[in-house]
Amino acid sequence: MDDPVKSVLVVDDEFGIAEVLEALLVDAGFRVTRAINGLQGLQRLHESAVDLVMLDMMMPLMDGPTMLGKLRADPLHRATPVIVMSGLPRDVAESRISDAYQGYLQKPFMIQALFEAIETAFGREPD
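^ thats the sequence. predicted structure below, dont judge the formating
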């Protein structure tokens, strides 16, 4: 594989989900950073750019829709692909966010759906 290691920021306040995502992504060859809310997620982005953000919808201090809006308003990160994650029904979740994301994962999700969303977010066809 000639591709450089891709970095992923997982922003989710549910420790178990963030931990499982990190383990799956690291096993797949990604470098992973975690944040427990949107505010911390934005701080992590200012510390180091990432190739993909996996963003939970409902979190304390700053929720996913707010972080997504701030991300898209920032010239440095406006083009960063985002996968939105939520336990809400998809139509409810999508009504609360702009269309400025590249993938959606309904919690709980299957591992295959996770990697298909990542491939799509990077502009590749899932295998």
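The longest strand covers residues 7-11.
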